[in-house]
């Protein structure tokens, strides 16, 4: 289901619930819960531009990249997983091995539309991401909005389930 958020820049729009900023600090690479198979199988959605960026980072041709690292799920493409459901690019010691070219889905997490729709959904996501609520960092509303905008551009009809 698509979850749309009001545009806080619209005339007369009320401030979003996250306007004061949110406590969040990524605890990776020690954590890695969103990259590993800890929560079972998943999908890391990639579009052709993201596949090309990853192929370029790895220094291999696009076709070789897709044969080795991409799978089709319904009408979309995802990175492959290992047998334990870790992302194929996740290293349990080093974290993401393609960090500079990681897809939008990874760059914008946990500031996805479905997570940010309500304070309750944000708080609930803390069960999956221990960085949510961490007192070591505060993410300002502008940065959250940028991530939400990117998420909305990447998945205009809402992020598909795996
Ligand atoms: S689950 Fe959260 S804290 Fe852990 S690596 Fe992912 S974003 Fe960072
Ligand atoms: S591409 Fe990198 S950041 Fe994204 S899920 Fe895989 S290991 Fe994690």
Give a verbal description of the structure.
- By secondary structure, the chain is an alpha+beta fold.
- The chain has one domain.
- Helices cover 30% and strands 10% of the residues.
- It has helices at 48-58, 62-69, 104-108, 113-116, 119-125, 141-154; strands spanning 22-23, 70-73, 76-79, 90-91, 95-96, 138-139.
- The chain starts with 21 loop residues before the first strand and ends in an 8-residue tail after the last helix.
- The mean pLDDT is 92.
- One iron/sulfur cluster binds next to loops.
Uncertain ranges: none
How many domains make up the 3D coordinates? 1
The percentage of residues in β strands lies in: 5-15%
Shape: globular
Gap between N and C termini, in Å?
A: 13 Å
- Structural category: alpha+beta
For the CA atoms, what is the radius of gyration?
16 Å
- Strand count: 6
Overall residue-averaged pLDDT value:
92
The helix content is: 25-40%
Strand order of the largest sheet: 1-6
Number of helical regions:
6
Largest sheet: 2 strands, antiparallel
Helix/strand order: EHHEEEEHHHEH
Bound molecules: iron/sulfur cluster
Could you give a short description of this structure?
The model has no long low-confidence stretch (mean pLDDT 92).
Distinctive features:
single chain, 162 residues, alpha+beta, two-stranded antiparallel ribbon, 6 helices, 30% helix, 10% strand, binds iron/sulfur cluster
Topology record:
Layout: E1 22-23, H1 48-58, H2 62-69, E2 70-73, E3 76-79, E4 90-91, E5 95-96, H3 104-108, H4 113-116, H5 119-125, E6 138-139, H6 141-154
Antiparallel strand pairs: 1-6, 2-3, 4-5
Helix pairs in contact: 1-2
The chain binds iron/sulfur cluster (2 copies).
One iron/sulfur cluster binds next to loops.
């Amino acid at each position: 289901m698509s979850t749309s958020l009001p545009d806080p820049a619209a005339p007369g729009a009320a401030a979003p619930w996250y306007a004061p900023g949110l406590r969040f600090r990524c605890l990776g690479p020690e954590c890695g819960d969103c990259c590993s198979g800890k929560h079972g199988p998943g999908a890391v959605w990639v579009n052709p531009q993201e596949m090309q960026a990853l192929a370029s980072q790895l220094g291999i041709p696009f076709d070789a990249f897709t044969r080795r690292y991409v799978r089709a799920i319904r009408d979309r493409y995802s990175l492959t997983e290992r047998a334990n459901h870790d992302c194929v690019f996740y290293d349990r010691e080093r974290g993401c091995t393609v960090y500079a070219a990681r897809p939008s889905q990874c760059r914008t997490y946990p500031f996805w539309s479905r997570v940010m729709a309500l304070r309750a959904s944000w708080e609930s996501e803390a069960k999956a991401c221990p960085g949510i609520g961490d007192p070591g960092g505060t993410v300002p509303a502008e940065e959250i909005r940028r991530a939400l905008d990117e998420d909305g551009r990447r998945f205009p009809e809402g992020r598909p389930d795996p």
